[in-house]
Amino acid sequence: MTTDSDSSRPDITGSGDPTPPPVPDLRVARVVAAREHPNADRLLVMDIELGTEQRQIVGGIVGHYTPEELEGLPIVVVANLQPAKLRGEISQAMLLAAENEEGHLGVLLAPDAEPGTPVRPADGPAPAGEITFQGFHENTLLAGPEGVTLNGTPLTGTRLVMDREVYGKLR
């Protein structure tokens, strides 16, 4: 018989437990405009609508998407990622995409949602404040035909689909 005081169970509340990763603020954004990066051949610069605000993001998806293909797409972004300057252009969020074994890339889409719609695990913790790129990568975001998970928990808030049916780890 196992009880709450059973000493064979790990102490999940002790101070020796690892700190959980910072929770990303995943939100739907609409790509308003996209263009080639003026100082980098492999980067695109995108203007996005994120609910009540406009932001600029930079993504390394040249060769997989053209600016014209991105315009109007309802993508999912990490909205609380620390801003970064990439080859002279500020990126104020990060789009989520997966690459499969064949080298095909697809972005995570939320076709039924309005910009700004949150996407997170049901009953999960609230998103952290600003997180670093390294902090984001302490999480595991996986996309498969059955859905998208964050650290093993399904994401909710809206229907999510992988563009081009490319599944794998989202980065």
Oligomer: single chain
Mean pLDDT: 91
Q: Write down how many β-strands occur, each being a DSSP E stretch of 2 or more residues.
A: 15
Please trace the helix and strand order, writing H or E for each element: EEEHEEEEEEEHEEEEE
Q: What is the strand content? A: 35-45%
CATH architecture: Beta Barrel
Work out the helicity level.
Answer: under 10%
How are the strands ordered across the major sheet?
Answer: 3-2-1-4-7
What overall geometry do the principal axes of the alpha carbons give?
A: globular
Explain what you see.
The chain is mostly beta strands and 171 residues long. The protein has one domain (26-169): OB fold (Dihydrolipoamide Acetyltransferase, E2P) (Beta Barrel), CATH 2.40.50. The protein is built from 2 helices and 15 strands. Strands 3-2-1-4-7 form a 5-stranded antiparallel β-sheet. A 5-stranded antiparallel β-sheet has the order 10-13-12-11-15, with no helix packed on it. A hairpin with a 7-residue loop joins strand 1 (26-36) and strand 2 (44-50). The longest helix is centred in the middle third of the chain and has 4 residues, at 67-70. It is globular and about 45 Å long.
